[in-house]
Specification:
The chain is an alpha+beta fold. Helices cover 15% and strands 54% of the residues.
């Protein structure tokens, strides 16, 4: 009986480790402090592997969302209320998505978080704000999301290849 329990324990351990490594994209994170509270983002980092941003996301139809990374949805956490333009983001945890529109991209805050990155429920969207699009000075092989403090707020910057998407926010 002890041997059977030991074999079962090893079996569970192997499959747990395999599940963790099954998400083959590296994870990344960024954080900053506003008003003594942490604002952070945790995301999957897929690689271009010889492709371009437009080759990969150019296929995405208008009105469709990108998970801003790979595997599990990108999680945005804030310990302070924020304002992204007209969008108020109360302290809490959200998943982040990029919505492709004819005029460019929007950053979408969704009240669900932790779900698999292809499971976006638009009914749970808190709101969206336009993303400024530019070209990076240096291409990034892997998705990189950075939070940088600016005055009484900050900027979120998403870069993949030479595509840079960004939005500014203020602490409330």
């Amino acid at each position: 009986m002890k041997r059977m329990i030991s074999v079962f324990g090893v079996f569970v351990l192997v499959f747990s480790v395999a599940a963790c490594y099954g998400q083959n994209a590296a994870r990344g994170s960024s954080k900053l402090t506003l008003k003594g509270q942490t604002v952070s983002v945790d995301y999957g980092r897929p690689a271009l592997k010889g492709r371009t941003f437009d080759q990969l996301l150019g296929q995405l139809g208008e009105g469709k969302v990108w998970r801003l990374g790979a595997n599990q949805s990108t999680t945005f956490s804030t310990g302070v209320d924020l304002a992204f333009g007209d969008v108020n983001v109360p302290k809490g945890e959200y998943s982040l998505w990029a919505l492709k529109e004819a005029s460019g991209w929007k950053l979408v805050f969704n009240k669900q978080h932790g779900q698999w990155g292809t499971q976006h429920d638009a009914a749970q969207d808190l709101g969206s704000t336009p993303l400024k699009e530019s070209k990076g000075a240096k291409a990034e092989e892997m998705v990189t999301i950075n939070l940088a403090k600016e005055g009484d707020g900050g900027t979120i910057t998403i870069q993949w290849g030479d595509k840079v998407l960004s939005a500014s926010f203020k602490a409330k």
